[in-house]
Predict the structure.
Amino acid sequence: MIDEKITIEYSSNPSLNKPKLICGLPGSGYVGKLAIDHLIDKLHAEKFADVYSSSFPPQVSIQQNGTVDLVKNSFYFSKHDEHDLVFLTGDAQPVSAQGEYALAEEIIQICKKMNIDEIFTLAAYITGKFSESPQVFGTSTSKDVVDGFSKFGILGMNRGNITGMNGVIVGIAKQSSIVGSCILGETSGYVIDAKASKAVLESLCKILKITIDMSELEKRAKDTEEIIKTIQAQAAAQGNQEHAIPYKSESDEKSLGYIS
Amino acid sequence: MIDEKITIEYSSNPSLNKPKLICGLPGSGYVGKLAIDHLIDKLHAEKFADVYSSSFPPQVSIQQNGTVDLVKNSFYFSKHDEHDLVFLTGDAQPVSAQGEYALAEEIIQICKKMNIDEIFTLAAYITGKFSESPQVFGTSTSKDVVDGFSKFGILGMNRGNITGMNGVIVGIAKQSSIVGSCILGETSGYVIDAKASKAVLESLCKILKITIDMSELEKRAKDTEEIIKTIQAQAAAQGNQEHAIPYKSESDEKSLGYIS
Amino acid sequence: MIDEKITIEYSSNPSLNKPKLICGLPGSGYVGKLAIDHLIDKLHAEKFADVYSSSFPPQVSIQQNGTVDLVKNSFYFSKHDEHDLVFLTGDAQPVSAQGEYALAEEIIQICKKMNIDEIFTLAAYITGKFSESPQVFGTSTSKDVVDGFSKFGILGMNRGNITGMNGVIVGIAKQSSIVGSCILGETSGYVIDAKASKAVLESLCKILKITIDMSELEKRAKDTEEIIKTIQAQAAAQGNQEHAIPYKSESDEKSLGYIS
Amino acid sequence: MIDEKITIEYSSNPSLNKPKLICGLPGSGYVGKLAIDHLIDKLHAEKFADVYSSSFPPQVSIQQNGTVDLVKNSFYFSKHDEHDLVFLTGDAQPVSAQGEYALAEEIIQICKKMNIDEIFTLAAYITGKFSESPQVFGTSTSKDVVDGFSKFGILGMNRGNITGMNGVIVGIAKQSSIVGSCILGETSGYVIDAKASKAVLESLCKILKITIDMSELEKRAKDTEEIIKTIQAQAAAQGNQEHAIPYKSESDEKSLGYIS
């Protein structure tokens, strides 16, 4: 294994109609991760590929059924009338800058093979303040998309950075002439924020012309918050831990499992 | 030398009968390292290979006889009726994520050449609390192994991560269709815990159908604890040290030595 | 993508007369960055190339028009009587030592193709003390250049390091027989220091025999200071932020935009 | 430039009689660096090669004459009756584990080309306590060398690590059948310790059967101490410095200069 080694393991090869990609990798506030897990759950999306990278944290992740697998990202899909949807989420982001660029390039290669021409990443817009009705912000590689955001209640931005995979995927998409947009939910950054995720999802659903039930989103946020508190308490009790309980989503629980 | 350079130096090429691999690399609580050092000692296991990697900490390690060698991992073997055993332990783990993935891949390649079809890694399950009778936890790449854990007094897990080589080796094993299992001993994480190591060894010995004398394990833990305290005191006295006394096991002391 | 992947995207291919390169990448005190942004603005320099590297921070940067692009460096040029000028600035420096060396080598290759035989980098000479009339220091790969510094009010130095791209570019230039010089403005290091930038620019303009209006430089410094304070306040409010408002120069605002 | 790029620039190609290599790279206590700078000075050793690596800190170093060069290591030689001597010292050590291993391999390749069959590295044995008459410790890849240490007043060691280039060079030497030994001077680790350097040099001179004047060593230590205090004061005054005054030895001052 030399440098970033990225391996894609396909469990199926779905035939998709004009698919679009939605990404929500774990980041600050879990806004995007919580949103995509809810989407995958409610749309009964099916896993079709796992992505392994030597730039992921060197860990295995214990699954619901007691077995174990390397930390990974996974692709899911769901069928729809106008555009089928592909989802990308996972346990972690790469630990290095080069690992992030390399993985984003690999993801864009996969998108090209699937004829995906538009990507949305879901992220957090952190303010340090609590908000009862969080706003939704957006940016895109396409000026047309930016100009159309207001129709979906999305505010534009004119400066700032989006760090991590939810940003880099959009930037690499641009270099391959794929339209990349990032939808960010306003959040304090202090809690797992179901309201921010819901706001992001509502805007995204308008764009994608789909509807999903939001009723369980708040419970999902509470469960996630609790798990993360447990992890942090354990991590505080030990400098150099070999074992910790991480954030684990329902979408992982119902995944097809990995076939080597 | 480009990137991770991994070198294997064989001092002998043992012919082994249906071997299984037991790994215990230094990690939190030294639970696995203490256990495997005891196993190697009591089973009179013989060293047959050293593993060097440019991802190990850039250090040499002074040996019992006053000579010096690069930080390394080493393979040992012992002969048994049903299954011969191979042991992997060492001075350190790689310093980078990529170094861990690369070394785990190399180890799995070595396993394949030796027809090893099952791997056990020994690790710590850190709770932050002291326990008089530590429990033993387990996970595996095989659902059958997980289902059989209860016969050996091993509890299953349904979430969490195992970080470092003791986790990654199991994850990479899965990708090569080798069954990988991790046995974790409950420990506070605050001391070198002979009780946790003993509990892990007792479960492992049941699985492997071997018996070993545990009487010296507690003394070994005390010696280890003392050495580590000395190191930490020295490390505290100096920001940027060039010289420190690390953990040094008896299994290293009796090793065959390295032939270049 | 393997290791440092550096991509150059040309939007035009200007024909230049005996060009010299001026570099000012963001570093401590923003002395060089503020100076080069002012130069680019006042000389109406035109962007002709963007440089992307997998060693840059893994981020996208939101542009003035609401669209987004990967963090990048950019080349600009302006036409003059005696020597045309090429400018290099950008959003960030690479995050690793190897990334800095690799990018500096790439920049020097570009210089060689453009027949650039002299490079000036603009940097900060940090003293920890405020100075009303900051001094200007200089060093060069050429003893002749060093000996001529006094004509331009530049003080020599006889020990010390210049870290980061503003140093490494000069060092790599030397290995390609290009004369590299670094002009450093004395600054406290605590604020965005228009006085230091102005002092550096005055010396540089004497060397290059050009004149520019300095009247807006102080306003530019104040704007920059304010933006950076906002960023730091936001960064303090969040450990692991996904979104932050970075330093954004006018030269970026008026850039040609990126054509993939 | 891919990964570690190491470049050797020879200014001359001396013909040497049964040469041995002495290494003293900057490390804790500057024990080895101070000793080798004194040796190079007193033996009028002549520089014949510079070593550049993309794993060195990304910095240029301002020379005594006001010009500038990339951070580097340098080889010197001096002619003697029985064995000619080669010296390796420099501005810095690599910033990464892989960079250290790669550079040590390159150095050993150079040794092989020069038929060097024995290497001594000079280092610090840090105790955290001040000692009026510091002891000298030693370890070697050769048991014979270890057994002979007592003749030169050098104490053996039976555990511990030697981190950094002064250790890794010895370890890599062993893998190429070159005898590598490390001589360590007892020091508190808190000051530049002329006494420790003198003790190391006295033992080394006995081994090498050479004599050198030690009278200026204490002055050299005081000068070094003062320069380092200045650097640390400056570094404390600035988080993210672009410019700092580092340790600069007389051996660098008299160096031949670099010819590209």
Observations:
- Chains A and D do not touch (no CB pair under 8 Å).
- Chain A is about 35% helix and 25% strand.
